[in-house]
Design a protein that fits this description.
single chain, 56 residues, mainly alpha, 3 helices, 64% helix, elongated
């Protein structure tokens, strides 16, 4: 199981745990990048907005 599966299952994690830092910080970075792309998208460019909002 990865960190996010364990968290969904109710398992607590210490924020200094190496697995947590590796997996969560990678996801935080990905989310920051997607937010920046979405926020800089022209509001009239619906196709780009929807493709970014579905990015995994």
């Amino acid at each position: 199981m990865n960190v996010f599966e364990n968290l969904r299952g109710g398992k607590p994690y210490h924020i200094f745990d190496e697995n947590y830092k590796r997996e969560a910080h990678t996801e935080f970075k990905r989310c920051r990048h997607l937010c920046r792309l979405i926020n800089s998208t022209d509001p009239d460019d619906k196709q780009k907005f929807y493709s970014l909002s579905r990015a995994r």
